[in-house]
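Supplementary Note 3. Input sequence used for the single-chain structure prediction.
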Amino acid sequence: MLRRSTRLQGIVKKYYKIRQPNRKTTVRSITQVKTVVVSSINRKYNIDDAWQYLKNKDTALAAFMDEDALCDFKQHLESSNRNNPFKSLTTGIIYQQIHGKAAQSIRDRFLRLFESPVPFPDSVIPSSFPWFPTPAMVLTKSIVELRAAGLSQRKAEYIRDLATKFDDNTITDAKLETLSDEEISKLLCSVRGIGQWTVDMFLMFNLCHPDVLPVGDLGVRRGVSVHFKHSKGNSSAKKKKHDDLPSPKVMQELTEIWSPYRTIGSWMMWRVLDVKTVAE
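The predicted structure, written as discrete structure tokens, is reproduced below.
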């Protein structure tokens, strides 16, 4: 099952960290980003309307929802790969539980296993490279060949399982566009190596679904606990780690005020807490 640490590290480190840029520069950059993002994102909801709705509903959270935060949220959606689900999920498997540079190197070697119609650069292949192997192409490679790119036995098996489910139409773009969040979760979790956290991130940022609450994410759980002043009360009994954090059911109840835009509320929990995980 995919772990949270490496993927969340990349998300938080690049997009969620609270910044204090020069005000004049900020105003110009926000205007530019708004223009680009609004015209290019094929989103499931209007970001500006949702942002204002949440500010009106949760006045305590509104204090942190400034223009810088809105700009960062839009930038992250803009940078997410929304056109190739297979690429997004395969990349997530490659990056599971390994350091950023090592994962980037393995991804580079993985891509070079295939013949691209677009010439590969001499340097490391960037994430924005406009080509990725199809599921059928991946299935032409054996586990041994995939491992030659630096993938572990399990990851090679996970990627082949994912490719198989795309190739036989168990997973299709059409299904991902039309199924409910719960149905997508069940579908993707049937793939070896993909767990609920990965599905939640995929729903939030790649599919741009508005009402996703990643109840298994430690940063969001901590943020919800602090923001809503949640406490299970004092107990003399020795607590296990994280026992004081709200359960998934309680999180759903506490964040009802954010519905139908829990995605933004969850993102703000990472931002407000300035979440940091295992360093790359």
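The first helix runs from residue 5 to 16. Residues 9 and 277 are 6 Å apart (CA to CA).
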